[in-house]
Amino acid sequence: MGEEINRLHVIVDEFHADFHPSPQVLKIYKSDLLAHVEHGMGKNLAFRCSNAINASVQSSQEYMMESMVPLLPSTAQSQIHMLVPNRTFDLSYDLNCAAICSDFQENIEFQFSLGWKALVHRYLGSVNAQKALRLVDPNFQNSRSVVPVAQTPSSGPPSIAAPPSNETALMTQEDLMIAMATNLASLTSRTSMSVIVVGGVMWKTIGWRIIALSVSLYGLLYLYERLTWTTKAKERALKRQFVEFASEKLQLIVSFTSASCSHQVQQEMATTFARLCQQVDQTEKDLEANICTLTANIDQLETVQSCSKTLRHKATELELQLEEFTKQYLEPQQ
């Protein structure tokens, strides 16, 4: 399962559906994506694991039956294979992606790769970047949290937030500029003087042409990324974010899924053992019934034997009396 989680991007890339950044389409898209991932991973796990597990289960069942055959009479030995049908044991890999990925929230807004926020995140890391951005804008975290993001199907209907007006957007930009100016003004005069001196030296050393060329290249790069941020690019970004999010979530249920599969195998073996035990119990009852019948026959035979001995003694006595009678009355006297 760990290897399949590492290959999750392949399953996600194989998913194709109508995509649009609107919340209604995103809701259906992510629901279908979750179903596709669960089906794909379950199919791959079954292909890689089910055959080996099924062979092991059948081998154990054969061993159990062979061990029990000597305990059964010849009439029941031929019927033992009917107790455990030769069927394929299929494991159920219940990943439940819809539940574990219910809190997935995508961010498909355009972000310039050389923007100041992206550069801060790239060179300072996520944790340090958050601290640095809060120094510039104390309301940075709050400003991000109010952006409406489409929720997953299992998390309920998306919250409806009123789109910000132009006046609010301008106020936010003005607040950001004021915060930047306030933080820059809070620096020491020595640092400000150093920045001015370094800027002047660069102006004199590089020249305004190179600076203008750099600014032009920067603008062209921004324009290029902005124009290439199409619907397909947004879909690729959503898939990439989903792979990163789902991989972390699926790693948490590896042991749980393994325990579930182990429990299914245990149930299958327990069912086989119960059927064999039932056959042994039935055979034991039949043997006990036969023993009772034979015991009754033996008792009857012993009674007949005892009676036959008594009759034989009487017959011997009568035979002796007959011989004496013959000698005394029937044989001629000499």
Automatic annotation (TrEMBL):
Location(s), subcellular: Membrane
Segment forming the signal sequence: none
Transmembrane segments: 206-224
Lineage top rank: taxon: Eukaryota
Pfam families: Fzo_mitofusin
Chain coiled-coil ranges: none
Entry keyword Hydrolase: yes
Predominant location category: membrane
Domain Fzo/mitofusin HR2 intervals: 171-330
InterPro entries, sorted: Fzo/mitofusin_HR2, Mitofusin_fam
Sorted UniProt keywords: GTP-binding, Hydrolase, Membrane, Nucleotide-binding, Transmembrane, Transmembrane helix
Name of protein: Mitofusin-1
Organism of origin: Xenotaenia resolanae
Record gene name: MFN1
